[in-house]
Design brief:
9-stranded mixed sheet, globular, magnesium, PfkB_dom, single chain, alpha/beta, 13 helices, Carboh/pur_kinase_PfkB_CS, ATP-binding
């Protein structure tokens, strides 16, 4: 129950990024060789686009990074500060201060590692109509070191967490840290959760992803990520219900509970696999004019889900709260919200 909510119950690890969000046209995407509704890591050719967005497109700054978004949304539901802790690496600059201020205002206990080697990471959020293309320049986020989680004050925060969530994006940064916390979760019978996060991760970071998967109690992903995972790992099916089932049956080290797999499909039903059964949850279809920006919908879904999970609510309630959260977020620009949530079953 909510009374059991305590500081440090939930821990998230990921890449803290300052989102630079703007509406652009398709020519802009083409200019930088980007696709709508996709996520890529910035290459050299993408570096000029950040300044261009700021100077020419009236961009908004939002505290971002997938896991930080999810933790912020969870905190919004919980309405009690510091239930969620967040770790990631930032630069020593004005952007990291903006990030920390915004995240702390949202109730997060922020434990950034700071590096002098790169500036704070940024993510261009390019909105074309209802779609969004993400281009992340990880910069400082790439410099997260396992030494950060060995510091006594941070190790303590890992020790007191009962639920640990990481993004697939973090596989590109510190697989070693992921393995450390995954093993810790297994040895202490904690809930370890991961997100597939982007199709390119399923393809190009298959080895660290498959190393983490045996520890994963709950796996989240969207339809394109699930499709790519199935193809790359030769699951020999394009039926998403079968994909969810097959992923749930892959090797799992903690046999006290079976893996739950959650696949979101945009405006289509959410698929959830538990104990060999697939359940479909219809999503709330909004009128076209109410959808402002789909960026952050997946992060918000997981935030709503986790807010209920850590309160011991049923999986049904978790999914329904996730859907409700995503529905709220897509009616605003970026992963933002206002007021208190009035989620009801």
């Amino acid at each position: 129950m909510a009374e059991d909510l305590r500081e440090g119950l939930l821990l998230g690890m990921g890449n803290p990024l300052l989102d630079i969000s703007a509406n652009v046209d398709r020519e802009f995407l083409n200019k930088y060789d980007l696709k709508s509704n996709n996520a890529v890591l910035a290459e050299e050719k993408h570096k000029p686009l950040y300044e261009e967005l700021i100077n020419l497109y009236n961009a908004d700054f939002i505290a971002g990074g997938s896991v930080q978004n999810t933790m912020r949304v969870a905190q919004w539901f919980l309405q009690k500060p510091k239930v969620a802790t967040y770790m990631g690496c930032v630069g020593r600059d004005k952007y990291s201060k903006i990030l920390e201020d915004k995240a702390t205002m949202d109730g997060l206990n922020v434990r950034y590692q700071c590096t002098d080697q790169e500036p704070t990471g940024t993510c261009a959020v390019l909105i074309t109509g209802k779609n969004r293309s993400l281009c992340a320049n990880l910069a400082a986020a790439n410099y997260f070191l396992p030494s950060h989680i060995e510091k006594p004050e941070n190790k303590h925060l890992i020790d007191i967490a009962r639920y640990i969530y990481i993004s697939g994006f973090f596989l590109t940064v510190s697989p070693e840290s992921i393995q450390t916390v995954a093993k810790h979760a297994y040895e202490n019978d904690k809930m370890f959760m991961m997100n597939l996060s982007a199709p390119f991760l399923c393809e190009f970071f298959q080895t660290p992803m498959l190393a983490a998967l045996p520890y994963v109690d709950i796996l989240f992903g969207n339809e394109t990520e699930a499709d790519t995972f199935a193809k790359v790992n030769n699951l020999n099916t394009t039926d998403r219900k079968q994909i969810a089932l097959k992923i749930s049956e892959m090797e799992k080290i903690n046999d006290k509970r079976k893996r739950i797999v959650v696949i979101t499909q945009g405006a289509e039903a959410v698929l959830l696999t538990k104990n060999g059964t697939v359940t479909e949850y219809p999503v709330t279809k909004l009128p076209e004019e109410k959808v402002i920006d789909t960026n952050g919908a997946g992060d918000a879904f997981v935030g709503g889900f986790l807010a209920q999970l850590i309160q011991g609510k049923s999986i049904d309630t978790c999914v329904k709260c996730g859907i409700w959260a995503a529905t709220q977020i897509i009616q605003r620009s970026g992963c933002t919200y206002e007021g208190k949530p009035d989620f009801q079953l």
